[in-house]
Automatic annotation (TrEMBL):
Keyword Hydrolase belongs to the record: yes
Keywords (A to Z) from UniProt: Hydrolase
Source lineage: Bacteria, Bacillati, Actinomycetota, Actinomycetes, Micrococcales
Species the sequence originates in: Microbacterium maritypicum
Protein name (database record): Gamma-glutamyl-gamma-aminobutyrate hydrolase family protein
Keyword Hydrolase among record annotations: yes
């Protein structure tokens, strides 16, 4: 479905999370090297634009519930590890950087989206955090050289290194068919599913690659679809968000009449 060419549906507003860095990351001059910096990888926003949505970056200092109340859809992006303490474990020798502020902010976005039925897409870390917010757990480390060697950064980011098999009847099966090939840049993965979480995609080694929430417009994918020229999961998100935006606009239209 081409959202852009469908006049009956508005262009939905899609919020995209980011990460907090310091000015030194962009070569800021002395005195500003430690200034807080919001960083967003632009391939997420271009993917939303390509699918027909209007992307907006979400500052980490804002209230996530107030943000979601103004949005038609949400993307939780990839990044560093989810704090293992959020799922009953402790940081181990392979735990990467942990950002408690980001964990709190994005968890709030997820909770608000679920509460309000706002369409939600979690990418890589975003899929993992979606599961953790619902009470699930993660595999803390997938070793390089074992299985599909999921955490290797040896390939270009858009290179599809392994197959994913999807469960019949799932959203991801409807989008991709029985299988697709994906890239892979993660050393953590969903272990025990949280409340309402349904596992819908698996790598050849059994690692979870896709999840959904039963009865809600929420999908998590373990690969990075934003790196491809086009990935149908963004079309799904924008279509779901456009339908929601249309439904939200109906009462206002009726009141004017």
């Amino acid at each position: 479905m081409d959202i852009i060419s469908t006049p009956s549906l508005p262009r939905p507003l899609i919020g995209i999370s980011g990460r907090r860095l310091r000015g030194a990351a962009i070569g800021a001059p002395h005195g500003f090297a430690d200034a807080p910096l919001e960083a967003y990888l632009s391939e997420y926003s271009t993917s939303v634009l390509r699918a027909g949505g209007l992307p907006v970056h979400l500052p980490m200092d804002a209230d996530p519930w107030q943000l979601v109340a103004r949005l038609d859809g949400v993307v939780i992006v990839g990044g560093d590890d989810v704090d293992p303490r959020r799922y009953g474990q402790a940081p181990g020798p392979f735990t990467a950087l942990i950002d408690p502020q980001r964990d709190d902010f994005e968890a709030g976005l997820i909770e608000a989206a679920i509460e309000d039925g706002v369409p939600l897409l979690g990418v890589c870390r975003g899929a993992q955090l979606l599961n953790v917010v619902r009470g699930g757990t993660l595999h803390g480390h997938l070793a390089h050289g074992e299985g599909e060697s999921h955490g290797s950064y040896a390939y270009p980011r858009a290179h599809r290194v392994h197959e994913v098999r999807f469960a019949p009847g799932s959203v991801t099966h409807a989008l991709y068919g029985e299988t697709t090939r994906v890239n892979s840049f993660h050393h953590q993965a969903v272990d025990a599913p949280g409340e309402g979480i349904i596992v819908t995609g698996w790598a050849p080694d059994g690692v979870v690659e896709a999840i959904e929430i039963d009865g809600l417009p929420a999908v998590g994918v373990q690969w990075h679809p934003e790196t491809f020229d086009a990935d149908p999961v963004f079309d799904w998100l924008v279509e779901q968000a456009a339908v929601r935006a249309t439904l939200d606009a109906v009462p206002a239209t009726q009141n004017v009449a």
